[in-house]
Each structure stands twice: as C-alpha cells, then as structure tokens.
Amino acid sequence: MPEENQLYVLIVKIKATLQKKEWKYYHLQSAENFIYHLKSFKSERTRKRMATEIEMYLNLVKEKMKESSGVHNKSKELFPII
User: Which of 31, 36, 58, 62 has its C-alpha lying 20 to 30 A from 77's C-alpha?
Assistant: First the structure.
C-alpha cells in the first residue's frame, strides 16, 4: 500500500513537469483532495484500497502525459476514472 506521503511526492513530481494551467485537465486537485481525506476512512482496508486506487490513477496520469493527444482529450479520458 502506498503511504500518504508517497502519494503526495508523486503528485508533486507530476505538477513539476506540467504547466500550472494544465493541472486542471489532469484533475490533480481532486486527486490531492482524495489523498488528504484518506485518513478520514475508519477502515484500514478501505484506506489501503483507496490509496492503491489513487496511486493507479496518478500512474495513469503519468502515462497520459506522454501521449501526443491534446489536454482536452486527456481530460475527458481521465474524468470517469477520477
């Protein structure tokens, strides 16, 4: 299970490679909010599952960043997943 700090490090790395105006297309604020609220889940199992899902999403974002399609298309593809 990824730790909260590891998820924050991953999101900071992603943000560092993007222009700030592109962050919204990758739903990074939403992902950051999910990370922040991980500790509010009472069940350890739920926290682990959610942390794993967030990590998978952030890894998908990293893959989408490598694609040559426009940010609007990437945003549309990522929205149902977030």
Answer: 36
Enumerate the domain spans of the chain.
4-78
Residue 2 above 90 pLDDT? Answer: no
Burial class from Cβ neighbours inside 10 Å (0-12, 13-18, 19+) for residue 74 reads: middle
> Which band of pLDDT confidence, cut at 50, 70 and 90, is reported for residue 80?
confident
Please provide residue 27's backbone torsions phi and psi, each rounded to the nearest 5 degrees: 55, 40
Q: Which tens digits make up the pLDDT trace of 31-62?
A: 999 999 999 999 999 999 999 999 999 999 99
Q: For residue 28, give Cα distances in angstroms to 3, 23, 60.
A: 18, 6, 12
